[in-house]
Amino acid sequence: MSAAAVAALALTLGGGHGLATARADAAAGPDWDRQAAARYLDQREVWWQTWDRAQKDHRTLCVSCHTQATYGLARPVLREALGEQSPTDSERVMLASIEKRVRNWGQMQPFYSDVLSGAGKEIESRDAESVLNAVILTSYDARERRLGDTARLAFDNAWALQSKTGPDAGSWVWQNFKYGPWESKESQYHWAALMAVTVAGAPDHYRDDPKIAASLAALTGYLGGHYEAQPLINQVAALWATAAYPSLLTDAQRARLIDTLGRLQHPDGGWSLTDLGPWARVDKTPLETRSDGYATGLIVLVLEKTAAVSRADTHVARGVAWLLANQDRTTGAWTAWSVNKNRDPKSDAGPFMTDAATGYAVLALEARR
């Protein structure tokens, strides 16, 4: 985008473009501010689209796990709740970039090159992008109750890159810059689980398409076979997938995880990402142990979707109460902190975990509707 277009887009979003004000005011409700959350997510997406490091070939944008993927999951859900009639300009820009890359897949360069970023980074970034494209496009098509041709093509691109042999057959090689939880060794399983969730939620009975049967079986086989070796953050993602694939985990595995999550819930009702993975900050600073919006939003969302857990469950109710009490009403966001280093919240990477936290908090709260 040109500088003028960027400025116009930012101005438009700042003016609340796309918000159906009458219905949105009613939808905001007394418990949390949907409009503020939407503004935060839109403004962060505008920033991402203007960031120099997000710019890729053919005038397209990098698809980030933390900012764009969670935006693509949460923003269409918010639009429905707010009564908006169409996507915002920031959503359109994101979708146009993804659709362009999907339709011209063979011509697009990977987001990272082996020469500049290290051996294997081309395959890692290509595989990861293929999954994220399918996840985001399907999230939008699910609101329309129809799986579009571009989303189907995104799935085709991803299935073609799925590992066919070896110990990780059924998954995708994932981008690994040692940045947990998004770009690290544990990310491979996490996003395989979210891909399974995406397939299950795709419109037009996509999961029943005979053409993907073998690929889907390989994916669920990978998830079930590798579950026990995963950190808790990934086991939570697997629990999410069991809503559609109940046999993925045994009753004992499911019960053990739910019990563990209950014991890890903080007295204030939230959860901390620090408790869910093998994290260690590279700058040797101590990990943040307070409850955060990312861990709490994700766990509440998953528990809400788990057949073995009632929405009236005490742990769910306390988690929801934490989310309602901890939205920053000024920014609209829920805060989370990096597990990689003590980041300045005003730096470029500083808000990334808060971006993801806000997306999952929105999904968790909207799941109650």
What is the fold's blueprint, element by element?
Elements: H1 3-14, H2 21-28, H3 34-50, E1 55-56, E2 60-61, H4 65-82, H5 89-103, H6 114-117, H7 121-144, H8 149-161, H9 187-201, H10 213-226, H11 232-241, H12 251-264, H13 293-304, H14 314-325, H15 352-366
Antiparallel strand pairs: 1-2
Helix pairs in contact: 1-3, 3-4, 3-5, 3-15, 4-7, 4-15, 5-7, 7-8, 7-9, 9-10, 9-11, 11-13, 13-14, 13-15
Features:
369 residues, mainly alpha, two-stranded antiparallel sheet, 15 helices, 2 strands, globular, disordered N terminus
Structural description of this entry:
- By secondary structure, the chain is mainly alpha-helical.
- The protein has a domain at 250-369.
- It is built from 15 helices and two strands.
- The protein has a two-stranded antiparallel ribbon with strand order 1-2.
- Strand 1 (55-56) and strand 2 (60-61) form a beta hairpin.
- It starts with a helix and ends with a helix.
- Mean pLDDT is 92; it is low at 1-29.
Low-confidence stretches: 1-29
What sequence of helices (H) and strands (E) makes up the elements? Answer: HHHEEHHHHHHHHHHHH
Radius of gyration: 19 Å
Question: What class do helices, strands and sheet pairing give?
Answer: mainly alpha
**Strand percentage, roughly?**
under 5%
- Mean pLDDT, all residues: 92
* Gross geometry: globular
Please give the largest β-sheet. Answer: 2 strands, antiparallel
Number of helical runs? Answer: 15
Give the strand line-up of the largest sheet.
1-2
Would you count the extended β strands for me?
2
What is the terminal separation in angstroms? 37 Å
Helical content class:
55-70%
